[in-house]
Design goal:
Elements (H helix, E strand, L loop, with lengths): L1 H26 L14 H40 L12 H38 L2 E6 L16 E6 L4 H23 L3 H34 L8
Antiparallel strand pairs: 1-2
Helix pairs in contact: 2-3, 2-4, 3-4, 3-5, 4-5
């Protein structure tokens, strides 16, 4: 009977120690930018940087497609210039057909890559502004573990926050959707007039989104500056 009681108590103590260890590991987990347990809104910041990374990968793939199309065009033209002349009648040589097809797509990929680059720069600037860590003085919370004595009040320290909100995160992904549409329209446009119309319309639609992210970011900065704990000065 005594052995059973001792075994039960040992299991409870072991379980409490495991729970306590997990609690302190969770309490001291790292934030998104810096290893700091008191960093607000890092999930929103992570979402915005995922959007930037997505746009960066799309731009890189478009550049790769542009280089491949230019390479095929150049090799085909060189093959034709080496002596393969076009027949007066009949089907053109395969190399010449490849040059024609690649020559049509290389400028389109170039225009699409330029559009993606411009969009990437705009989104990157807005993301850096809204996600830069902003310090402010605060009382770091003291975690209470059931079964232990009540903790002392929190001590003054430095907390971190940023200018991101749910709205800026949503705006960044809406901007990604518009950029993908811009990319498709640039590939579909075949003349300078249609390309100019596409760029004008997409610029009018996308610029307000970036401007809104800047406005929200500056507004959140002012809120962070007013969060300083007066008792910690």
């Amino acid at each position: 009977m005594t052995a059973a009681i001792i075994g039960t108590v040992a299991k409870l103590v072991t379980r409490d120690e495991a729970g306590l260890l997990k609690h302190y590991k969770d309490a001291n987990r790292s934030g998104f930018f810096v290893p700091h347990p008191y960093y607000d809104r890092y999930e929103y910041a992570k979402s915005e940087w995922i959007a930037v990374t997505t746009l960066l990968l799309l731009w890189a793939l478009t550049l790769l497609a542009r280089y491949v199309a230019s390479y095929i065009e150049r090799r085909a033209v060189e093959a034709v210039e080496r002596g393969e002349t076009l027949p007066l009648l009949g089907t053109p040589p395969a190399e010449f057909r490849a040059a024609q097809e690649a020559g049509e797509w290389a400028p389109r990929f170039a225009k699409a890559a330029n559009a993606l680059r411009n969009a990437l720069l705009m989104l990157l600037a807005a993301t850096i502004l809204t996600t830069v860590p902003m310090p402010y003085t605060c009382r770091t919370p003291t975690h209470y573990v059931p079964g232990l004595p009540l903790p002392e009040p929190g001590h003054c320290g430095t907390c971190l926050s940023n200018g991101t909100t749910l709205g800026t995160s949503i705006l960044s992904w809406v901007f990604i959707a518009l950029t993908i549409l811009w990319f498709i329209l640039e590939l579909a446009s075949v003349d300078a007039i249609s390309s100019s119309i596409v760029r004008t319309v997409m610029g009018i639609c996308s610029f307000p989104l970036i401007l809104a992210m800047f406005v929200v970011g500056f507004k959140e900065w002012s809120k962070i500056m007013s969060k300083d704990d007066p008792d910690c000065h």
